[in-house]
Specification:
Blueprint: E1 4-10, H1 30-41, H2 53-61, E2 67-72, E3 86-90, H3 96-106, E4 109-114, E5 122-123, H4 136-143, E6 163-164, H5 176-184, E7 187-188, H6 199-218, E8 226-229, H7 243-249, H8 255-266, H9 289-316, E9 319-322, H10 331-341, H11 346-367, H12 371-376, E10 379-383, E11 392-393, E12 396-397, H13 398-401, E13 403-407, H14 412-419, E14 425-428, E15 434-440, H15 450-457, E16 464-469, H16 473-482, E17 487-495, E18 504-507, E19 510-512, E20 526-530, H17 544-550, E21 555-559, H18 565-588, E22 593-595, H19 596-618, H20 624-639, H21 645-657, H22 661-671, E23 680-684, E24 689-692
Parallel strand pairs: 1-2, 1-3, 3-4, 4-5, 6-7, 8-9, 8-10, 10-13, 14-24, 15-16, 15-17, 17-20, 20-21
Antiparallel strand pairs: 11-12, 17-18, 18-19, 21-23, 22-24
Helix pairs in contact: 1-9, 5-9, 8-9, 9-14, 10-11, 15-18, 18-19, 19-20, 20-21
């Protein structure tokens, strides 16, 4: 009963959302953000209240996580929660009665946090909620009510740690998430020093706080998991020449103020700060009511974003790393990549490689000040609406060099939801052997049976793979609702209508908007999309993949661009074969569990190795027999989680081909930098799906 479960009742009665990022309008309210800050700093486990600082840091270093769920306080009926251990229910003052009802009806052993002082409610403003000990007395009181602890000889409660850092708080959103992390670990800052200047000062502040975190918490150990993020807005809003922006900017009389909105706020390449020359006597931008309104909205959204990322880091024992906003401003390159990828001629292939390398180079340049930090970490959660997975580490895409998954930055409501999606879901291995394939093609479509043939090819004799052909959206919904397994594959056409519209799956003659499945269809935890552009790099945040997350999936394997039907079918067939063959092999090696993210990440490395080696065979560097020999060896090293597998594969290519390493790497860099596997991505929280290999 030493578990602590946090249940956040999120406001949002009006249904209105903020205009740039899409948070419920009440979420960026200072009261609610203060409550989120208190959750971020509060204990992960009940028995932390008896630990000295060294013990406390040790259990955090070992990956202690926080169980957080968010639920709409305005939902009709009652919020259904049933947690073991101690529940801490967080509610804004307007929802105090709802919180009390939740506690009573669920029979929770609970503490209610809010911003008012009344019976059975703790007012966070009466406490120093920047100190992780601020709830110790109440948690201790709840522990003593459990029968299993009757008569226990309790140790003394800890005292506030308040370990002083030789580091000043910067009072800036660039490092706010990092500072909350240090506060949650019992440290205090030596003062405050605001940042005001060019981008290098912000970069220096990030590197300084990360270095201090490593020094005082991790010592000689590498930093743990990263959350790689940059605040963003809906993709179409970056076009400051659009009709919508023109209608707003026409009302701003002073040209310098319009420039401030466009280049200082919307298209600022750095973190903050924007120098602009004003003629004597001109008012400051903030004095214009339209400019002031836009600034206020965006500042509130960024604060809510930082609060969400802080929650994510608290719940995953991860380190936040904020990249500059430049990474959001490369849409023209993504449009070109999509265009060249959609063609099949040799010139388009060459231009695709060139444009990808330009895009990856821009990402690499933006992340260059943090290259060492990124390389140290083996697992990364990306929160972004652009494919940061395509940056490279020593020539290898981040999505291959690291174990990577992503959650959306927009809409803000989904960012908050997936920053605190809840506890780990344990799925028995045997349950993953039952798979539903929802298929929708016309009878004369030449690709209709490709996936079925792939399933037959991989001889999935220990799996139950059921194909259900659907012709209407209602057929698809009924197929989902009748399925009681954990994995569903959508096998159909997919597309989108640009960055202002929803993506969809083509079901018969109808377009299935997956956002409309919420509350209507039973979407299982794992969804695999054998369809084009289900997370399009040029589409909107309202993608097919995000819609399935909103509708109940924990993780979705989506596609950044259109995919080749034959290769996509082989890809999905190999994933299913991996469920059948790889998981038992892991068990035989002595593993008890593996996360879905780890399992898929290892598979993506194998698929990437296939792409690279096939290309080497295609251009005559190796023959078919050599291809098989190198591939088997590479797969073996990948499955052993050897971080040097790629270097080993290149060494084998050098040996078998008789070419130098420099020549091989140069050809791969210029001719095969962008390959098929890089079209796929892991959405949601796949690390929360724990596969029980004994089940």
């Amino acid at each position: 009963m030493s578990d602590i479960n946090y249940c956040i009742l999120v406001p949002g009665a009006s249904g209105s959302v903020t205009p740039l990022q899409g948070f419920n309008e009440e979420i960026p309210d200072p009261e609610f953000l203060a409550l989120l800050a208190a959750v971020t700093v509060a204990p992960n486990r009940a028995f932390e209240i008896f630990m000295d600082h060294a013990e406390f840091l040790e259990q955090r270093r070992e990956g202690s996580k926080k169980s957080i769920v968010v639920t709409g306080a305005e939902l009709e009926g009652h919020v259904h929660v049933a947690f073991p251990g101690i529940s801490i229910v967080i509610a804004p003052r307007k929802h105090i009665e709802k919180a009390k009802t939740v506690v009573k009806e669920a029979g929770l052993v609970a503490i209610i946090l809010s911003t008012v002082t009344e019976e059975d409610v703790i007012n966070i403003f009466d406490r120093d909620y920047s100190d992780p000990t601020f709830l110790d007395e109440e948690i201790f009181g709840k522990l003593k009510t459990f029968e299993e602890f009757a008569g226990k000889d309790w140790p003394a409660l800890r005292k506030p740690y308040a370990v002083n850092l030789d580091l000043k708080s910067r009072g800036n959103g660039t490092v706010r998430t990092n500072e909350y992390l240090l506060l949650s670990l019992g440290f205090k800052f030596s003062g405050r020093e605001d940042i005001l200047g060019d981008i290098q000062l912000y970069i220096d502040a990030i590197n300084t706080v990360l270095a201090k975190t490593k020094e005082v918490v991790y010592g000689n150990e590498p930093l743990p998991d990263l959350v790689l993020f940059t605040p963003g807005i809906a993709s179409y809003l970056y076009d400051v020449r659009s009709r919508g922006w023109n209608a707003i900017l026409r009302k701003v009389a002073i040209p310098a103020h319009r420039t401030f909105i466009k280049d200082g706020l919307i298209r600022n390449k750095g973190y903050a700060g924007f120098k602009i020359e004003f003629d004597d006597g001109l008012p400051m931008p903030q004095e214009d009511p339209i400019v002031a309104g836009i600034l206020s909205v965006r500042a509130n959204e960024v604060m809510a974003t930082l609060a969400s990322i802080s929650l994510l880091c608290a719940s995953t024992a991860a380190i936040p790393l904020r990249l500059p906003s430049e990474v959001n401003l490369l849409r023209s390159l993504l449009v070109e990549i999509q265009s060249f990828h959609g063609r099949s001629d040799n010139k388009a292939y060459r231009l695709l490689q060139e444009k990808y390398l330009e895009y990856a180079g821009r990402l690499n340049a933006a992340a260059a000040p943090f290259k060492d930090i990124i390389e140290q970490s083996s697992t990364i959660t990306i929160s972004s609406d652009v494919p940061l997975e395509w940056m490279t580490i020593d020539g290898v895409p981040l999505m291959i060099s690291h174990e990577v998954s992503r959650i959306p930055m927009t809409p803000g409501n989904m960012l908050m939801q997936f920053s605190a999606i809840g506890p780990t879901v344990v799925i028995p291995r045997s349950s993953l052997l039952k798979v539903l394939v929802i298929r929708s093609f016309k009878k004369d479509d030449p690709i209709r049976t490709f996936l079925e043939q792939s399933v037959l090819h991989y001889k999935l004799d220990k799996m139950s793979v059921t194909f259900v052909d659907v012709n209407t959206k209602q057929d698809a919904i009924e197929a989902l609702n009748q399925f009681d397994g954990y994995v569903v594959v959508f096998d159909c056409h997919g597309t989108h209508s640009g960055n202002t519209s929803h993506g969809w799956l083509q079901i018969g003659e109808e377009q299935l908007d997956t956002w409309q499945l919420a509350g209507v269809a039973k979407v299982p935890p794992v969804v695999i999309l054998s369809a084009c552009s289900t997370s399009s790099v040029t589409g909107s945040h309202a993608s097919v993949a995000n819609g399935l997350l909103r509708s109940g999936a924990y993780t979705v394997v989506g596609t950044f661009l259109d995919v080749d039907a034959i290769k996509s079918s082989a890809f999905v067939g190999r994933v299913l074969w991996r469920l059948q063959a790889f998981l038992p092999a892991l068990r035989s090696l002595g593993f008890d569990t593996v996360t879905w993210r780890t399992m898929m990440s290892l598979f993506l490395r194998m698929a990437y190795a296939t792409d690279i080696l096939r290309y080497c065979e295609q251009i005559g560097l190796i023959n078919a027999a050599q291809y098989r020999e190198i591939h088997i060896a590479a797969n073996h090293q990948i499955n052993l989680a050897n971080p040097h597998w790629y270097r080993g594969m290149i060494a084998e290519l050098v040996k078998k081909s008789g070419r130098s390493e420099e020549e091989i790497l140069a050809r791969l860099q210029s001719e095969a930098a962008f390959v098929e596997t890089m079209l796929y991505c892991q959405h949601g929280r796949p690390e929360l799906i724990e596969i029980d290999l004994h089940g």
